[in-house]
């Protein structure tokens, strides 16, 4: 029940052109996110940006045409997170649909090969492919690309990460975030970049008459995978990404998802028919990510590639078991991190670095994320690179608005060359490697640059809401419209409201969840509410301000509106 700086979103214009069927509250929510007309909420696939606008596409397509025509062996080099796994599955499935006969994949083991197309991964490939296509990595793989080319392999890099000072000398490179690339959306995930490459390849094959009188391959069958990878990677859901995600969600809801996604959704106890983007982010994505964090992401990719429903269910069960292990390990590591922070409270670090020799390198990103949420500070958590290598550390960073974490690492690297061995990432998340003996010096440097770049206002946690719901507006009809009005996600946030309530009654569910009946003092109406992980041995305040989502409670086939409380403060 700590206090936050609650602020209300400002309308970015006046809504116009909406039909009476669209609830006025939803129109205001859209307007606060820059969506002012129905056209801006039109998520038909025909509205997608053209693949030809992506730089490097022509050369990449030419290479793929040659590879398909001459029956080259093609290897997809993926990544060990959900974006990488879905992108790998999209690449394998898509290239096979478009005529490639010999397509395989490899995903690095983070503890053996390191990140991306590393020399160690290239050396491990047997037999050596004629063409390597990276997915969700490669822009930083200078040495790996050189190693592959020295062995006679061609390399196409598809990636979305920000480039460093030196680019790999790949045979072709497709990345909307390269300098000078004019693709209007810089927010594509790795899986989205790969999907766009397949669209461009199909268009060229169509021009060449490759499909003859036969029906051309339907690449929309891949959109469930594109949606999952895009949401799970937390890239901004700009208009183009919302088109991709909405198309994938519709495919899943209609029962046309691949068996692997169907099995993962069911394993996560979510409804296929009512699935929304948050379900992908909270229930499905973590199950795939767990394999890459603790074991081998090949298990996740195989789950997404199989067309056998029974096999998919078995894979999903294994992934759920690994995810449960990950959750338990994460809880223990977060508890240790919280103790560290408490013991170091007197230091009042602005850039928080944490290291514990017993931590698991695959889980430190989740620790950094949890501590970032609690402290509202940029956090980097470190662990030994592997069980038998305590000299090298791997760190995972999570940041707050106004502090570009990758740029901060670049600045540290420029000021103290050699301190960081490798780094890469985005504005809000990054990864890095350094020597264990250099950790104290790095922690000081990170705190120093955070103090330099962040002022007191940025260090105040802010929670934005869409204002108060009017009396009587918390209806099932509005809840339904909100559920399907997104897709909501990163940079297109789920609607949040804040109102004053009186607590009419409450009880504890499970160990520490609250179920409440709240009364609206304006009209006396009652509504059910829940708040998870909120009970700490004290009753909720009798009068409170609550920040909440308006959701649907589906109990025994009966739907009712319910408030999902995100934050409460006593009045």
Written overview of the protein:
With 571 residues, the chain is an alpha/beta fold. It contains 16 helices and 17 strands. It has 3 domains: 275 residues, Alpha-Beta Complex (inorganic pyrophosphatase (n-terminal core)), CATH 3.90.1640.30; 110 residues, Roll (Diaminopimelate Epimerase, Chain A, domain 1), CATH 3.10.310; 108 residues, OB fold (Dihydrolipoamide Acetyltransferase, E2P) (Beta Barrel), CATH 2.40.50. α3 packs across α11. The longest helix is centred in the middle third of the chain and has 35 residues. The N and C termini lie close together (11 Å).
Largest sheet entry: 5 strands, parallel
> What is the structural class?
alpha/beta
Termini separation (Å)?
A: 11 Å
Radius of gyration: 24 Å
Helicity, as a percent range: 25-40%
State the CATH architecture of the largest domain.
Alpha-Beta Complex
The global form is: globular
Which blocks of ≥5 consecutive residues have pLDDT under 50?
A: none
CATH topology of the largest domain: inorganic pyrophosphatase (n-terminal core)
**Percentage of residues in DSSP E strands:** 15-25%
Strand order in space, largest sheet: 3-2-4-5-6
The DSSP helix count reads 16
């Amino acid at each position: 029940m700590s206090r936050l700086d609650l602020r209300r979103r400002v309308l970015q214009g006046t809504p116009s052109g909406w039909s009476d069927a669209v609830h006025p509250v939803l129109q205001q929510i859209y307007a606060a996110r820059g969506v002012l007309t129905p056209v801006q909420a039109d998520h038909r696939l025909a509205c997608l940006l053209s693949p030809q606008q992506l730089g490097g596409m022509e050369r990449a397509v030419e290479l793929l045409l040659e590879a398909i025509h001459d029956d080259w062996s093609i290897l997809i080099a993926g990544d060990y997170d959900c974006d990488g796994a879905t992108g790998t599955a999209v690449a394998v499935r898509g290239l096979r649909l478009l005529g490639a006969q010999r397509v395989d994949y490899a995903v690095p083991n983070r503890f053996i090969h390191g990140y991306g197309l590393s020399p160690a991964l290239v050396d491990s490939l047997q037999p050596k492919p004629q063409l390597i296509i990276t997915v969700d990595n490669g822009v930083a793989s200078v040495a790996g690309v050189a190693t592959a080319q020295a062995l006679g392999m061609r390399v196409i890099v598809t990636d979305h990460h920000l480039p460093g000072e030196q680019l790999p000398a790949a045979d072709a490179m497709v990345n909307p975030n390269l300098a000078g690339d004019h693709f209007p959306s810089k927010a594509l995930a790795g899986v989205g970049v790969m999907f766009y490459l397949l669209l461009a390849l199909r268009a060229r094959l169509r021009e060449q008459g490759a499909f003859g009188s036969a029906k051309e391959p339907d690449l929309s069958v891949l959109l469930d995978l594109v949606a999952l990878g895009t949401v799970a990677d937390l890239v901004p859901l700009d208009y183009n990404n919302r088109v991709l995600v909405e198309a994938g969600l519709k495919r899943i809801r209609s029962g046309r998802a691949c068996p692997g996604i169907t099995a993962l959704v069911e394993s996560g106890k979510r409804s296929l028919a009512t699935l929304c983007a948050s379900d992908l982010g909270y229930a499905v994505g973590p199950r795939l990510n767990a394999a890459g964090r603790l074991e081998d992401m090949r298990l996740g990719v195989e789950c997404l590639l199989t067309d056998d429903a029974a096999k998919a269910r078995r894979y999903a069960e294994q992934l759920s078991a690994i995810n449960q292990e990950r959750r338990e390990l994460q809880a223990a590591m977060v508890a240790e991190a919280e103790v560290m922070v408490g013991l170091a409270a007197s230091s009042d670090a602005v850039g928080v670095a944490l290291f514990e020799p017993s931590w698991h390198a695959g889980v430190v990103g989740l620790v950094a994320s949890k501590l970032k949420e609690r402290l509202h500070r940029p956090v980097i958590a470190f662990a030994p690179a592997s069980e038998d290598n305590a000299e090298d550390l791997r760190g995972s960073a999570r940041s707050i608005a106004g502090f570009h974490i990758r740029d901060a690492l670049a600045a540290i690297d420029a000021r103290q060359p050699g301190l960081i061995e490798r780094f890469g990432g985005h504005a809000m998340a990054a990864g890095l490697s350094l020597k264990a003996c250099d950790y104290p010096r790095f922690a000081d440097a990170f705190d120093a640059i955070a103090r330099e770049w962040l002022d007191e206002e940025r260090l105040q946690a802010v929670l934005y809401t869409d204002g108060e719901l009017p009396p009587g507006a918390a209806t099932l009809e509005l809840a339904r419209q909100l559920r399907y009005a997104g897709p909501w996600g990163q940079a297109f946030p789920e609607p949040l409201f804040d109102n004053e309530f009186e607590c009419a009654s409450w009880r504890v569910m499970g160990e520490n969840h609250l179920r409440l009946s709240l009364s609206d003092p304006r009209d006396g109406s009652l509504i059910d509410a829940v708040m998870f992980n909120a009970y700490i041995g004290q009753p909720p305040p009798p009068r409170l301000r609550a920040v909440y989502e308006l959701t649907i409670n589906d109990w025994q086939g009966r739907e009712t509106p319910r408030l999902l409380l995100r934050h409460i403060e006593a009045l």
